[in-house]
Amino acid sequence: MQAAEPANPYFVKFRGSFTSALRWPQLDALWERVLAAPEGWYVYAVGEEAPQQAAGAETLRLFVQEIDVLLRREHAEDYCGIVYADSLETPTMVKIYDPNNLGVSCGYSDNPPLPGWVLSRLPPCDLQAMRQPAGRRRWWQRLFVH
After folding, report:
1. What is the 3-state secondary structure (H, E, C) of 80-124?
2. 1, 113 contact by CB (below 8 A)
3. Which residues contact 44 (CB under 8 A, 6 or more apart)?
C-alpha cells in the first residue's frame, strides 16, 4: 500500500480545491457525469486498504447507487453538502463524507477530517497515514517497522 506523501499525485489532488454538490439535484448530476464514463475510477473506502486497480463499470454503478441511498437515508437534510468534487462538470476526484461521522467537513484546516469514501481517476494512496503527525509516525515505525 502506498503511503500518502506530499509529492504523491493522488495526495496533491486530494489536498486541492473542491466544490460541494450542495443540493441533491447537483449530486444527481454529478453521479450522471461519473457514470457517463465509468472506466478508470478507483473506489476507495478510507480506512480500508487502498485499491490497486480501478473498479469495473458495474462495481462503480453499484457503489454510486448504494452510496446515494445511504446518503439520502442518513443525511436527513433538504440539502446534500457532504459530497465534494474537484469539478462538478468534469470530475476526476470525488470526496464523500460519512453522514454519521461529519465533524467539520467544510472550511479550512491544515488537517481536515477524512472523507468516508473517495472516487478518483488516480490510483489512491493510504490517506489514514495523513492522520498521524510525522513525529508519531516515526515513533510507530521505530517500534514496529523493522
Report:
1. CCCEEECCCCCCCEEEECCCCCCCCCCCCCCCCCCCCEEEECCCC
2. no
3. 50, 51, 117, 118, 119, 120, 124, 127
Which of these, 46, 48, 138, lies nearest to 94 by C-alpha position? Answer: 46
Taking the domains of the chain in order of start, what are their residue ranges?
9-144
Take residue 143 and report the three cell numbers written for it: 517500534
The count of residues in the chain is 146
Is the Cβ–Cβ distance between 13 and 122 less than 8 Å? yes
What is the C-alpha to C-alpha distance for residues 95 and 86, in angstroms, rounded to an integer? 9
Most confident of 20-24, 30-34, 46-50: 30-34
